[in-house]
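Researcher: Last one for today. Full complex below.
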Amino acid sequence: MPTLVEERKGITLPPGPPIDGGGDEFSGDPASSFPISKGQIGVWVLLTAIIMLFAGLTSAYIVLRGVPTWQNIELPSWLWPNTAILLLSSVAIEISRRAVRRGDIASMRRWLAASGLLGLAFLAGQLAAWRQLVNAGVYVPSTLQSGFFYILTGLHGLHLLGGVFALGFVMFRAMTHRLSAVDHEPLKLCALYWHVMDALWIYLFLLLLLS
Amino acid sequence: MSESHAVEHVHHEMGFLHKYIFSTDHKIIGIQYMITAMAMAVVGGLLSLLMRYQLAWPTTLSPMMAKIFPVAYAGGIMAPEFYISLVTMHGTIMVFFLFTAVLTGAFGNFLIPLQIGARDMAFPFLNALSYWIFLLSCIVIFSALFVTSGAPMGGWTAYAPLSAVPAAAPGQGAGMTLWITAIALFSASGLMGGLNYITTILTMRTRGLSMMRLPLTQWSLLITAILGLLAFPVLLGAAILLTFDRVGGTSFFVPAGIIINGLPLDHSGGHPLLWQHLFWFFGHPEVYIVILPAMGMASDILSTFCRKPIFSYRMMIYSMVAISVLSFIVWGHHMFVSGMNPFLGSVFTLTTLLIAVPSAVKTFNWLGTVWGARIRFTSPGLFSIGFVSMFVSGGLSGLFLGTSAADIQLQDTYFVVAHFHLVMAIAPLFAAFAGIYFWFPKMFGRLMNEPLGKIHFWFTFVGVYCVFFPMHILGIGGQMRRIYDPTSYLFLQAQQPLNVFISISAFVLGAAQVIFLFNFFFSIFAGKRTFERNPWNATTLEWTAPCPPGHGNFGVELPTVYRWPFDFSVPGEKEDFIPQDVPATAATKH
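Model: Here's the assembly. Have a good evening.
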């Protein structure tokens, strides 16, 4: 049995079985091990779903942008520092990922914590931005764009919050010494998710800004 | 669960609760999906019989119904609102909670690890969670039937602004809220399932099982999972906007100046057609989410019962890929009469008719498979042939409906009802029946009763044609969808005998399904025990496992694959089938 497990991980592959008896339609590589891990496919599938959710909302945004009742709102100034904070958190998680590759676990934990805290700071900043809008008298139903503003930022925030929980999980594994230079896939996947959430925010910000 | 961990538990016995209720075993989850979907099918089917009764005898007083449904049948006659609720609930339950659930949920879960030679899905816990969320969504949609203000009335498509304004109709309050909740839960469950299917099929294939050696069922499930992954989030996004329109006071889908029940609404003005675009961007791929696994399963079963390789395995895969790509650019054909730009209508006509090409490729391949074969006419074989028949019958009318000029005449008539029932409801139903008769021994270690299966097939086959074929004529004659009393229109009265004929056929068809349900549940406990691993002489990997397979599916060693799944009637061989795990050298020794 153990040999099969290793094969799955793509470490060793004994020569494949003879290719024969496949009929005229047979083709293909007899070795079935797939080069991408389960976790990576899982995260990419999840990210695809998230991207499609926002793609659908974007198309709704663009269509409604054309109706005569569309009214732009003044975007809260908090969004600018928030964006900087989120970018920094992406940088932090990247430093953390590089640290673990070197085997520098202490540095990895420090930067991971920094990334999580910056993420939480971003979320707090988004709440402050909402507060700013409410103070200006702009609510969800005020205009079509204000509705989109709250929904898009809210959904993005929820997805980022999910990322914060994932960072917490990675942190827990790091604290219990289950991350190493060779085996740190959870951190890699987390960083991937985090970067995409970061890019998604930039995209949403531009969408809201340039309408 | 890690591979080695699974191995340790191959023969591990568990308590009833752990084994059947809180199980993470893909086979149990598949069976859970199947039984739940069957229960939903009974509900959805009964709703359709209520509709047929109403359409055949709209003015006949029915005191019995008045006793069962005192509000809906006040005075012994069905209320029009109740009829619209029936249409909505029947469509929703059948599309989501029967077909999507049984084809991907039940067969996907049961078959993926078995056919690829794996011990379980990639993420078993997520898989179990997917079932429980699905069950919750079933309960929520079922409860919508019992809301005092009435079940939802927006159709399975939930068109805005009817769906966006709770005051628009009695069922659009609490009933519609439950509808949105159920669909959101269903989407979440489907995403978890799809994540598992894609990951499992890509990464967990056993040694030797390359992509081009996969059974077509597996290809179809993989492509379906990708379609679901791209389509469901868009529906979810639309549902979020809809919810805000309903409770948040926004106006994404509600036009300005709308007046409901004589009262002007305080909405600033959005775009009601936007909902249709978003819905059908999801909705059209959704019909392929239903039909693709049916195509895959029917192909594998057809080949097994024809004792011939499937005709052009590769073209079967390429055509499925082509269909799924095209499915994302045809949604506008549902909206030809919505006031869209006629030029855009022509574009959607073109893309829609293009789908006929890969569909025809598949049909010719099925015919090529049957051609000259010595077909075994047992229940699974019969139902897989029936699938092809239904797909062709329903698909041909799609050519008329996909052409905008013809569709403007036929839109919203019974011609459309006939088309989509045959092609995306009855055809998948036949594939699902074929699958149940075929894999039943693998699920329960017993065979279903064959004579009952044949009776079930012939009543169903003739029954569906009697029900749905005359609907084309009704539609060309002008009978509209969703009307609850055709006799109230002078020009439709001459066609009423046809409605009566359809309804009587529908009752017979419904009764035939009781034979199936009896056969299914009776056979679980008292069917003929089969100790043979491969009762149908099939080739794919699930037939190398015991009937039913234990926890972990295969013995200590996972099977190794040496050939494609269609080695039937290989010239020079003694047996007319060679399972995928037979090495070439051993086969030649026969």
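Residues 1-32 of chain A have pLDDT under 50 and may be disordered. Residues 30 and 194 of chain A are 36 Å apart (CA to CA).
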